[in-house]
Automatic annotation (TrEMBL), chains A, B:
Keywords, ordered alphabetically: ATP-binding, Kinase, Nucleotide-binding, Transferase
GO biological process terms on file: glycerol catabolic process
Entry keyword annotation includes Nucleotide-binding: yes
DhaL domain span: 363-562
Protein species of origin: Paracoccus gahaiensis
Domain of life: Bacteria
Lineage, top ranks: Bacteria, Pseudomonadati, Pseudomonadota, Alphaproteobacteria, Rhodobacterales
Residue span, DhaK domain: 7-327
GO cellular component, one term: cytosol
Single GO term (MF): glycerone kinase activity
One Pfam family hit: Dak1
NCBIfam families: PRK14479.1
InterPro entries in the cross-refs: DhaK_dom, DhaL_dom, DhaL_dom_sf, Dihydroxyacetone_Kinase
The protein, known as: Dihydroxyacetone kinase family protein
Amino acid sequence: MTSVLDRPEDFAASALSGFCAAYPGHVVSVPHGALRAGAVPPGKVAVVVGGGSGHYPAFLGYVGTGLADAAVAGDVFASPSTSAIASVARAAEAGGGVILGFGNYAGDVLNFGAAAERLRAEGIDARILAVTDDIASAGPGDRARRRGVAGDLLVFKIAGAAAEAGLDLDAVMDVALRANSRTMSFGMAFDGCTLPGHGAPLFTVPAGQVALGLGIHGEPGIRTQPLVPAAELARLLLEPLLAERPAGQDGRVAVVLNGLGRTKYEELFVLWHHLTGMLKDHGLTPVAPEIGEFVTSLDMEGCSLSILWLDDELEALWTAPADTPAFRRGSSGQVAPHRGAVRVADAAAAVPQASAAGRAAAPCIARVIARLADVLAGAEGELGRIDAIAGDGDHGQGMARGSAAAADAARQAVDAGAGPGTVLALAGDAWADRAGGTSGALWGVALRAWGQVLGDDAAPDAARVAQGARAALTAVTRLGGAQPGDKTLVDAFVPLVEALQTTDAPLAQAWSRGAQAATDAADATAHLTPRLGRARPLAERSIGHPDAGAVSLALCARTVAEVLAD
Amino acid sequence: MTSVLDRPEDFAASALSGFCAAYPGHVVSVPHGALRAGAVPPGKVAVVVGGGSGHYPAFLGYVGTGLADAAVAGDVFASPSTSAIASVARAAEAGGGVILGFGNYAGDVLNFGAAAERLRAEGIDARILAVTDDIASAGPGDRARRRGVAGDLLVFKIAGAAAEAGLDLDAVMDVALRANSRTMSFGMAFDGCTLPGHGAPLFTVPAGQVALGLGIHGEPGIRTQPLVPAAELARLLLEPLLAERPAGQDGRVAVVLNGLGRTKYEELFVLWHHLTGMLKDHGLTPVAPEIGEFVTSLDMEGCSLSILWLDDELEALWTAPADTPAFRRGSSGQVAPHRGAVRVADAAAAVPQASAAGRAAAPCIARVIARLADVLAGAEGELGRIDAIAGDGDHGQGMARGSAAAADAARQAVDAGAGPGTVLALAGDAWADRAGGTSGALWGVALRAWGQVLGDDAAPDAARVAQGARAALTAVTRLGGAQPGDKTLVDAFVPLVEALQTTDAPLAQAWSRGAQAATDAADATAHLTPRLGRARPLAERSIGHPDAGAVSLALCARTVAEVLAD
């Protein structure tokens, strides 16, 4: 949808107004378009680009040093009028003639062509530059009939850089036409776009399908096929372009991977992740590639890949500085030298050596954690089902993965001579790192805090264990922010800690009572509504069901009690 | 939808890989994140930001000079793990301590907090900076519970600039916390987003509604109401922020108008068009405002407005240079002085004075065009209905608007002493400019070409009129590219021109024959399929219906014949 608008017929004009207001350092508003703000050397060739609105940053976003001198904005997906183009071109003209650049669509061809005729009749040398990069729209033998898509950016950048470098009108046209003849794009669409004021999309792509070569306004494509993984999409984009590699070309390519609006940056980066390798495999070297949104189509879902087969002159022009609202080349300062080798290895903590008593007590801790890992592996499915009621259902998996990693770390720590506190702390770190998510982080800080209280010098007695439990609970509430009643593991943790602290009973008996209290409390969370960070529908869905984190904590408490009772 | 992916569980990692491959000049890849590429002064405070993936350019796109030293990327919408954060922070640390910046969400609070504890245990001074800008998520008295949204950019920019300026850890934290306490955001959503690998959106907004204050992962908002025009949406975004203006604040504000993914640039510019006036009305001066996508949420449809209430220090830090993949401040070169007064007035063509004979003949041309305007006004609805079968249905409106403007221009030209040729040429220009679209441009060049043949010095005879008609047809086919049989107005124009040229009959009789031939040919276009620039479904739909352009040309020919017969 296009949801933000006043009257549909005002959409393009309001967008133009807002654009000019947003970039006073780059552009000056003129009727029907925007003009480069800075002074222009007399005699410079003026590069004026344009077309329908709805394609931002095409074309307004290209106005600035090193790219376009002005842009003309038509209505959404409609060519600007002849007089609008001529009027903007007159304002941009600086004595060196004008190049009118646009994508090759019927309405634009008409109006830019008519504007050029009008300007010439007034004595302004005006040329037209129709970009024809979309290989899906016509064969290599019929290039003049090809549509213009994201190749606009490549061709206009070359023209803009050539004009900025002071070339005359003939020379700028020559290099721009050469760039156009060496620029090819291929696109794919996953879904259509909706015009301002319309309730339904202009065109659609069937769900689960990808339309290859579909035009950015719904013009016919090549074929529709089932959606495939990103690696295959990357191949589908690249291979048709390779077929038109100029003979003898040395492999340097300017590349634009363009999102059409709803296909977002991360998806483009996933494609680029694959394309970098594929380009290399084909002997191609991308020069200053651009990944992002350059020629959009309202909220259309899809993307395109454009290649400009470079030579020395084209490479210099492609990499020349530019500074526009939507496109910048060249640094704002000196590029600092690359930093040296990056330290990425974890600071491997040396295991502190424990006293003999500590070393003797440590294996018991490791055994408890190993048993927890066994039990949590068995409970993985059940905990996942409970979590799925109000969450993403990954709690069982996280607890199983975390406890397994903790058991490994604990065993290694024992073997390395650690005492009870270090064993527990290292187990906690491993748990957090492998489990991921909120509960992983909480279990990590809990075990680490508990271990710090236990220390490494003696077998912990019941009072020390209870004190550690209190420290663990404090760490959990400090880091997690949950209070009793919030329907989290804290609801089960609090009664466990209180049971451990309010008894003089031996350790096993204290744990047995604590485990029972934690289990009762976990069951009672079914009556609560979660308060922290849960969307409302999820929170409501969870009423009548216990919290997965509280249930797993109670399960762990019972397991410890069982081990101690053995 | 998120359509570009391989395995859902690899999405974030592949996107990170592609991002690092795309910006080798800005970043170095490290496990779980990206590190600023350039050398960093020893002792500089390291600003490390991060959070879940799916929010690009948050957070990877912020890495570079003047902003973040590194970013950590979690899974989609999931906090990075404690060890991932600690590992990236260790790589970024340059001896001045580390600030860990993130949006205030439970998982991030846990993991960044635990990472800070781990780093401190290793002797690295680490602080946490939780951004809390979303005023919809908690009241002004409960700021610490607010979520972090697009205010991330504002707060991180301040911290990054302060660190770049060489402030020490305490000083950077002070100014960053002050920035956070003065940063407020309010957002609205039109539709939800879809996680990679999921077939349905994570949450939805009812069609035709806007959800105010909805969180970027679907967290509860304030209310849902019917969608309203953009001017009202702008007010809904701005007013809640004004309520928290600090006492005595002088009106300078840093502003971020942020698109969440599917709400596109033009829509944001439409909002900005309204917001600039509203800010001024409230005595506020936006300083270096940013309009675009800064914290997205996959393909979520919506936007947010963020304000940072500036003071002198914050303004200097906000406007300080930065150079990252997604955010740049400071020019790549010298900003040229503003160009002087911009020539925007159309080069008002002086009306060339015609001979007496020419002046005498001109009113007849103007009468013909006035009659065309009457007829086309009456036919507007019918022509629109024909056009809607295979087009956007605006043909009737364009013809009515164009001919009315042409009639006005013709009358004025006659009054100014123009001859037949100039009257027709100026009528053509006016037609093209007011009608817009393809047919407007074609009618414009047709009348202009026709007028040039007629000249201004005599009443045109039948032969001259026929010769003008041929010139008009040539101009139309040259500019429009259509051939007979393409189902355009050319199909009716060709028989008209041939009838005019192949007879010695008087003008009125020749037009009568030509009009009949054009009408027959227009009817016959019902059997044709359009070939130029029409999407396939539209082309198929048009079979059995005549072309609107041909029908209107025939109607005009009949009208001319009637006027001449009178």
